[in-house]
Structures are given as structure tokens and as C-alpha cells.
């Protein structure tokens, strides 16, 4: 069953986070277990961000979290944040594909 992790945080140093994401992608090539990622910015709160990361299972997410590269990036990310990061671990209990009108 699909598992989604939300990573919510605030930062005024967003331009320093972008290279960090690229570094993570390169460093975890062939190791990471995530299947889809959205990096989002809150339109109503200027320094508020939410990353939405999809995994094939909770176990896969935990394996990804244990990668040394993930821990390294998470520690550096925390240094760049003014609030958070806060993690929400969500089991997908229902999924509906929609066709737009």
C-alpha cells in the first residue's frame, strides 16, 4: 500500500535548499526508495514549505530514512529551517484518480 510522508518547515533560506535537494538526488541514485516527490510553497505563508514524498510502503520509507545520505541532508536541512521540519507519516487508505472536466 502507498505511503506518503509530508515534511513541513519554514525557512528564509530557500535558495540554499535547492542545491541540497539536487545533492540528495545524485547521492541516492540507485539507493532511494521514494517514487514521487512534490516540493511545494505555501501561497498564503511566504516562508512555509511542504514536501510531499511518496513511497511504495512504510517499510520502504523507513529504509530511505536510514540511508546515510538522507540523514546527512536532513541534518543540513534542519540548520536552514526557522521552523521544523515536522514529519507526518501517512498511510494511504484510499486513492481516487480523477479526470478533469
TrEMBL record:
Protein name: Antibiotic biosynthesis monooxygenase
Database matches in SUPFAM superfamilies: Dimeric alpha+beta barrel
InterPro entries: Dimeric_a/b-barrel
Amino acid at each position: 500500500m502507498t505511503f506518503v510522508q509530508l515534511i513541513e518547515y519554514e525557512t528564509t533560506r530557500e535558495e540554499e535548499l535547492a542545491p541540497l535537494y539536487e545533492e540528495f538526488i545524485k547521492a541516492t541514485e540507485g539507493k532511494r526508495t521514494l517514487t514521487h516527490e512534490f516540493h511545494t510553497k505555501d501561497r498564503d505563508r511566504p516562508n512555509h514549505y511542504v514536501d510531499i514524498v511518496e513511497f511504495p510502503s512504510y517499510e520502504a520509507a523507513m529504509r530511505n530514512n536510514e540511508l546515510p545520505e538522507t540523514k546527512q541532508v536532513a541534518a543540513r536541512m534542519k540548520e536552514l529551517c526557522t521552523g521544523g521540519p515536522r514529519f507526518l507519516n501517512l498511510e494511504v487508505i484510499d486513492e481516487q484518480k480523477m479526470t478533469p472536466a
